Amino acid sequence: MAVLPPDLDAPGFARFLEELRGAVGADWVWSSEDDLGPYRDSFSPVWDTAEERHASAAVAPAEVEQVQAVVRIASKYSVPLFPISTGKNFGYGGPSPNVTGSVVLDLKRLNRVLEVDDRRNFALVEPGVSYFDLYRHITERGLKVMIDCPDPGWGSPIGNSLERGIGYTMPFFRDHYGASCGMEVVLPNGELMRTGMGALPGAKTWQEYRYGFGPDPAGLFAQGNFGVVTKMGFRLMPMPEHYRTGLITVPRRRDFVKLVDHVNYLSDAGLIGEAVYSSPLAPLMAQPDFLALATKLGGPADGDMDAAASAAGLPSWQVDLQFFGPEATTAASWDYAKDRILSDIPGARALDGDHFPLPATEQQMLNTTQPYRSAIRRFGALGVPSLGMWKIVSDDGHVGFFPVLPRSGEAVFEMQRVLGDALKEFPVRPFFNATTTPLYWHSFAFQMVYAPSVKRSDPDHNAVVHASMKKLVAVAAEHGWGDYRAAPIYQDDVAGTYSFNNHALRRFQEQMKDAIDPEGILAPGRGGVWPRRFRK
Amino acid sequence: MITGLDMDRRNLLKWSAIVPLAAAAPYTALAAVPQGVDALVIDRRHWPAGTPTPLAGLAAPQLFTIDGDVTQLWYQTLDPIWRKPGFVLGGVTGSDALFVLEVLAGDRGRRVTQRRVLDPVVAGLQPVSWIIAPHHPSVKG
Ligand SMILES: Cc1cc2nc3c(=O)[nH]c(=O)nc-3n(C[C@H](O)[C@H](O)[C@H](O)COP(=O)(O)OP(=O)(O)OC[C@H]3O[C@@H](n4cnc5c(N)ncnc54)[C@H](O)[C@@H]3O)c2cc1C
């Protein structure tokens, strides 16, 4: 489906493309339907419907000056650009833009690892550097740092962190935007800006002190549309000497409240990596009686859940803990965690897990020797990029709604009940039920997940998915829970829920957008921020 | 390191024999494998557990096997090769593995130039035979 940029006719578009070719070379500008296929969102629930967003062209500059040239040309023709780094944002829109007719600014050719310092523990990379590339750079040079990577490892530190994506190691590092330090940005007028210490000529601390002096605008570029990021720094964890795991189980449903409080303490004190919660009762969902109990309207009584657990001889909850550091420190931290939790929760049990020096062997990576059934995926936990998680992708992909909730057992029970009830009208599997556990991906908040699959051959199914996503966004917001990240087709819905004081935040962002990007050429609509030109 | 290979007909037939698809399907798939394919990928999930694999009979560097996950194959072998011009890759894999390879190939200016969906779907797994070849001028040999 060939489309034109908004407000541009075919001859104008042809002239625009010709200027782009002049700037980056004819081989690096694409506008045929065939060439643009990979820039569609292959996970889209609105695939081939009027709601799908299509690019009119794609352009791949090789260096920062070319990025600046492309931005200036786009400004001259008022053509919206949609910058991507590695373009693997599957589940959140893939590489497709917010506005049909946008030109995808594909930064894959800016692919240099500019610096990795394993004495001061940081990296500086360009947007086209993937987690695999960074990992290869580090391992080939024997550098003593560990990366924190999301799944699948083909994404990029810059693309992922600009989405505020997450990984699976220690709290400081697994919030990828939080672990960033220093940006270089091409602004909508084509000018180059550096944030933090990068603004001070000659400073050697760009990747060590993120603020510099005065207001720090770096946050505007994450889930935002104020510039094209061309370099970014990241803090890296010094390669830990040792890795240790342990499992804690608790018998009763309400024990989850205390368990979460203890784990919060361990995490905020810097003693543990990602804590992975699960319920040993989840497999019972295959039994109709238990399914009915765990999905009961209004939520089940604690006593009924406890009775089901004891009839099955299972604990209600468990948490996989992970420790990084010197061997003795990991052992002491695990002993402390056991004492702390077991002395406070009657019936809690602790199981010692695998532990070994890092880097791990192949067998250790495959996690075959754990003495209990563990929910940890070692590749993510140990910062080794992988594509293996693709196995969870079913049908033609999925969309994701990940509401943020407080780190408390009570909040978890409330979300299980409220969103479980809200989903009942839709023929989808019960994502929210009395065994659903939170994800401890972001460092200081929980999330839960709704990620229904999409099927290109079944528009009715996709319509159900689409409607259920919108309903969950709205119902969650009524309870103070907001999505952390969304595909372009849901960004307005999600941004609309962050509405304190008559949408003061959005109005502030719009004022800035109009001032910084008067033509509205950079990713209009991203993050729910629309320039005047496109505002309805 | 893979070099250009010349897979002869005997080897191609052996390769087909280890892919337990409907009787005619592997041969149909192979008929689509043109001359000049530099290496082949097969997905172990398509042959039943316990079936002896005649892989030893094939020239090892010319044949790659995966278990659905393409991480090691891509990271160790294909990524370095695909950064240079040339190299035609053929395979019979699950459609999921092909999707991942196709995306990775696209990053390096390569396209799926032939694709044939094969019967039967085994355990929810859709086998596909395919060819990935250089497309962008920067990697055309
Ligand atoms: C099976 C599966 C598992 C997943 N697991 C995880 C996970 O563990 N953690 C996680 O976070 N995600 C996960 N994802 C989602 C997604 O795959 C990753 O977040 C991925 O890293 C995002 O793609 P990318 O890094 O290529 O970013 P890109 O697609 O390049 O960028 C994302 C967005 O950021 C903006 N952007 C990118 N680059 C720039 C730039 N230079 N300047 C300005 N704006 C820019 C654009 O709007 C772009 O759409 C998963 C997806 C799947 C299918």
From TrEMBL, chain A:
Gene3D superfamilies: 3.30.465.10, FAD-linked oxidases, C-terminal domain (3.40.462.10), Uridine Diphospho-n-acetylenolpyruvylglucosamine Reductase, domain 2 (3.30.43.10), Vanillyl-alcohol Oxidase, Chain A, domain 4 (1.10.45.10). InterPro entries: Cytok_DH_C_sf, FAD-bd_PCMH, FAD-bd_PCMH-like_sf, FAD-bd_PCMH_sub1, FAD-bd_PCMH_sub2, FAD-linked_Oxase-like_C, Oxid_FAD_bind_N, Vanillyl_alc_oxidase_C-sub2. One of its GO terms (biological process) is lactate catabolic process. GO terms for molecular function: D-lactate dehydrogenase (cytochrome) activity; D-lactate dehydrogenase (NAD+) activity; FAD binding. Residues 51-239 form the FAD-binding PCMH-type domain. The keyword Manganese does not apply. Pfam families: FAD_binding_4. The keyword NADP does not apply. This is FAD-binding protein. It comes from Croceibacterium xixiisoli.
TrEMBL record, chain B:
Residues 1-31 form the signal peptide. InterPro entries: TAT_signal. Keywords: Signal. It comes from the Bacteria. The keyword Signal applies. This is Uncharacterized protein. It comes from Croceibacterium xixiisoli. The lineage of its organism: Bacteria, Pseudomonadati, Pseudomonadota, Alphaproteobacteria, Sphingomonadales.
